[in-house]
Design brief:
The protein has a single domain, classed as Jelly Rolls (Sandwich), CATH 2.60.120. It has one helix spanning 259-274; strands at residues 7-11, 13-17, 21-27, 38-48, 56-62, 65-73, 76-80, 85-88, 93-97, 102-107, 115-124, 135-139, 144-147, 150-156, 158-159, 162-163, 172-179, 183-188, 194-202, 204-206, 209-211, 215-219, 225-230, 234-241, 249-251, 254-256. It is mainly β and 311 residues long. It is built from one helix and 26 strands. Strand 2 and strand 3 form a beta hairpin. InterPro entries: Pirin (IPR012093), Pirin_C_dom (IPR008778), Pirin_N_dom (IPR003829), RmlC-like_jellyroll (IPR014710), RmlC_Cupin_sf (IPR011051).
Amino acid sequence: MTVPPTSVLLPGHDVPLGRYTVVRRLLPQRVRRMIGAWCFVDHFGPDDVSAGPGMQVPPHPHTGLQTVSWLAEGEILHRDSLGSLQPITPGRLNVMTSGHGISHSEESPVPHPPVMHGLQLWVALPDAARHGPPRFDHYPTLPVLTHDASTVTVVVGSIGGETSPAVVFSPLVGAEITLEPGASVRLPLDPAFEYGAVSMAGSADVLGADLKPGALLYLDRGRRDLRIESETGARLFLLGGEPFDEPLVMWWNFVGRTHEEIVEARAAWEHSRREPGGRFGTVTGYAGDPLPAPELPTVRLKARDRSGTVR
């Protein structure tokens, strides 16, 4: 007998980000660390930031990953050590590729919209790409599929015959799905991909699961399509990709392969933070000091595979 693909609803947890923002961390989790090469998912908002500074994340480093920034509401200003200065607003996409090392800051501009709501996602770079030079790309337009009362924006990869222009380094897909009340949509899937679905707003029925903000629905490989429906209306994000088979060491803002790599990256950041330049460069224009790296744990950091098993 053929065993049907599994699905698991995984609750997230709240994490403070900077001084003014709390996010819901949906990935990594103890039992599911990755979906394809997607290794990190934070959902923030919707937050009323009309009376405060909004998002304020000082300059900090990254290695071995891509950041994918996606907004439903609001505006965030991105600065990085390449000299990039780029606002992001809903429907537009920022992708930063760290390669061997980059630093950046994220802040709500002055003035800023009254509500902030979005996703911050990371993609682990495969070994062939993770030592390359850093880059930053902004995509002001993305392909959109519309059907009746549903809209699908192709953020990364391909779906339904449309392909995002975003540059990635492994087989991936990411798409925002909006449903009007009472609407449904059936999405074609790649059976070689595993998938995850997140509700940013509203409730949707996905494979019998009542998917609401605060949880991630993991979908194993083997599916060729996926039906989503919502009685009340919903905004979802679908992410997927071929299983990523390289074990990773993830610590703070670094994605590496060994304990020694993380130790080296931390030391390089502390040097860049005190003496501008070096491996992570310098972010100019942010009104504040770079973030210091936390202390390393007293035990050796171990590489884990996508299911959390130590390798």
